[in-house]
Amino acid sequence: MANPPLKNLITTVLKVPPQPEAPLGSPGSLRVFNAAPGFYRYRVAQWALGQLGTAAGLVVGLVFLNRIQVGPLSFAHGLIQPLEVLGVLLFLIQLPFTFMMVDLDYRYRWYMITDTSLRIREGLMVIRERTMTFANIQNLSLRQGPLQRLLGIADLRVRTAGGGGGEGSGKHEKEMSEAANMHLGYFRGVDNAEEIRDAIMSRMRGLRDTGLGNPDEPVAPTPDVQVSAEGSRELLAAAHELLAETRRLRFAVTL
């Protein structure tokens, strides 16, 4: 289905790229999917709550401005009505644009899995793409809040080697740190998070069974070679015989 003109304008201005290329893997092993419909409802609910908060702040601001009639700010009373109109207009104008951004963020979210690696792309203003090989994955974890449980979705977090840095103390700092961490990837808003986790773990086990597993795994030490006394005598006799043959060959060359 074709996008409305406003969506086409936003994707053109932001230069949103098309579907990413598949990560490395065997032919026929690629799986491509997007976030679940429940994730779209989840983001719309977040957007609606944010808009309600903005509207409430706008109303409080307008009430405050209309009460400025005396005192040191009374000279600005003549500017109140234009400011009120401008504030309401800006609020109404941003509604369709921010709603379209929510919709496009849901649509332009790509999750790809092959038999050896995965690729995640998300974002509109700032596009973030993660490519991870199963051999380097160290941890898989599920996260699900109350509203996510109600909508039947969850987030699957994938962490590779080297992804144990600090994540900040506050929620905003933690989110910014995770967004910049190239060792973290999220399958956000999927309704089959456990299935994806089990598929990745199965392929990780397959790689390790073939000797292509985690490079950080300790390598088993090479066993010491034990030589018996009889073997030592045989080895010494062979060395003496080789030495005698070398001397005979040198004597023949000198003649």
Which helices and strands, and how do they pair?
Blueprint: H1 5-14, E1 31-33, H2 37-66, H3 80-107, E2 110-113, E3 117-122, E4 128-133, E5 137-143, H4 146-151, E6 154-160, H5 171-180, E7 184-190, H6 193-209, H7 229-254
Antiparallel strand pairs: 1-2, 2-3, 3-4, 5-6, 6-7
Helix pairs in contact: 1-3, 2-3
Describe the structure.
There is one protein chain. By secondary structure, the protein is α+β, with helices and mostly antiparallel strands. The chain has one domain. The protein has helices at residues 5-14, 37-66, 80-107, 146-151, 171-180, 193-209, 229-254, and strands spanning 31-33, 110-113, 117-122, 128-133, 137-143, 154-160, 184-190. The chain has a four-stranded antiparallel sheet with strand order 1-2-3-4, with no helix packed on it. A three-stranded antiparallel sheet has the order 5-6-7. Helix 1 crosses helix 3 and helix 2 runs antiparallel to helix 3 (80-107). The radius of gyration is 33 Å and the shape is elongated. The termini are far apart.
Pick out its properties.
255 residues, alpha+beta, three-stranded antiparallel β-sheet
Summary?
With 255 residues, the chain is an alpha+beta fold. It contains seven helices and seven strands; from the N terminus they run αβααββββαβαβαα. The strands form two sheets. The chain has a four-stranded antiparallel β-sheet, with no helix packed on it. The chain has a three-stranded antiparallel β-sheet with strand order 5-6-7.
